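DATA SHEET
Item: assembly model
Revision: 1
Owner: S.N.
Input lines:
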Amino acid sequence: MINLKSFMARQDILALIILAALLFVVMPMSMDIFRLNLIGKYLTYAFVAIGLVLCWGKGGILSLGQGVFFGLGGYCMAMYLKLESSTPEATAIQSTPGIPDFMDWNQITELPWFWEPFNSLTFTLVAILVVPALFAFIIGAAMFKRRVGGVYFAIITQAIAAILTILIIGQQGYTGGVNGITDLRTLKGWDIRSDDAKYFLYFLNGALLLGVLVLCQFVLKSKLGRLLVALRDKEDRVRFSGYDVANFKIFVFCFAAVLSAIGGAMFTLQVGFMSPSFVGIVPSIEMVIFCAVGGRLSIFGAVYGTLLVNWAKTTFSETFPELWLFGLGALFIAVVLVFPNGLSGLYRSYLAPHVDRWIFRKPPEGGSTGTGAIDTPAFEPDPAARPAE
Amino acid sequence: MFADYSWTELGSIFAMQGFAGLILFSVFVLMALGLAIIFGQMGVINMAHGEFMILGAYVTYLCSNFVEAFVPALFGVYFFFAMILAFFVAGALGALVEWSLIRHLYRRPLDTLLATWGLSLILQQAYRSIFGAREVGVTLPDWLLGSVPLTDIIEIPINGIFVMVLTLVIAISVYFLMFRSRTGMQSRAVVQNRVMAGAVGINTEKVDRMTFALGCGIAGVAGSAFTMIGSTGPTAGQLYIVDTFLIVVFGGAASLLGTIASSFAISQAQSTMEFFLSGSMAKVLTLLTVVGILMLRPEGLFSAKIRR
């Protein structure tokens, strides 16, 4: 570690410790395994939300296709698990034993070529990281090199999410269709459905999340992080300073994609299936709201935002299914109009000064980051958004 | 895939699918015209556009039921009243939304996107609570039913022709409104240079509201026309929103002509391929082609010459 202080202020270390305590002590002690597994599932979305903080909050690139990468990671994992549970013995009643059950139902008689490599766990783990990164690189390179950004990028990523969903649902024999890849049992002979496994996966997920948070903190405090903010606020000025703006954008988009994919893979492991309903437009845009509620500028806020929105979703959609969509819709509007910096913005304006005074015995800083209004460019209309004729 | 068919059959298939594509084209054009005004001219992303369309469809549905029950004598022509009503209801809601939501967000286009998505969720749930989750359809008057036989294997449904004529009329009116009327001139002036337009005495806030309301109103008419060829459910609007946005972007955001051209290209490609491939693959291929072209040529088919 180069210099701890330079990339983690005391407040950030405190935030990390509190989150770690919450995830590793408070939650496991206060909840049964069912609820804990649910929290674990929510936390997998937090990976996506953290990626969006980097990409959207800091970099100003709104991707409405993060579900694509979540899905790619999840599907890679699910393909491996499915192949492991489809041994010739376990699938002896099928007309072609040894291939996944949904392929058999769709009259496919041999394993498609792109399923073959997923017999290997090493390949699968590499694929979880590389496939989304590659995909994001292609999209990012094509768009950012041509200086497409803003709303155009959002619309095109959304279209890609739509295309992938239609493709997965349409190609039932190869992907499991609308039901997705279900009935996943073991990982290298280890039953992922047992309570022990669920505990282990929860802790693994939490540890990964904290690792990702530290990594992101490092990225944000590095020169790269400051450049991201700069190119969000005045892209041209960064470009005129001699930086290749497109490469930074491509990098952060790929980085966010990989984070989403890790989340997706952990999701598959903990929930035990993967389906197109976590890939398409609606889940992708919901992931944006997790990030926005937490505060689009704070990686810690994104974790809490994800937990809060998902907890609210589960609670309300169980008891008042009709009200939930109204609530979610109102949340989208409120988070944009009323508190654009989300939970972390509220925390920074109201709580942080007291925390600083009591714990760190420090006078409150005037005008620290995030206390003011939302810091998207206030006076420069996005050239892509309002084309002049 | 062509080998199984004879030439005459292929001709008829292309004619029939081409005609089905024309109906799809009409729906796309009607939806995209409203969006092209709101997105292309104002730069506002309205994710709730599909819901404005569905509002028009529900207004038509209510009109149809009302006229059928109370003034059956007028049933043959109720559709025209319904359409006008749909225009004004959707337009009024649009003005309300602009006043309460959009006008605070003109400088933050990405946030508009999220806020209008929230609006679309609220509207969807509202439709579900009021009209039920089931799809509803309107009763068409007799003169719109049936089809015209063109040759012995090609038949053309009358309601399809009607929708196409309607689209033509609306497209021409929008053209005149935007390019030949004072309102349109003011609206384009505000888009090109807001400060200057304000300086020469145009009430830019009012023009914004009118433009947004106009776009939503056209969406309402689109929904009204949509009831003639399909049934309406609370989430039907969401099915079209991505296609419509792609159409507008593909056509070149600021160009109404481009919007029409890209609607035509996309609808024809989709409907012709649908016959030979499965529906989902046709859609995937069409959308992929569009996204691919947009990656190579981000400014769309008909682009305004601007420096970026």
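QC remark: Strands of chain B lie at 147-149, 155-157.
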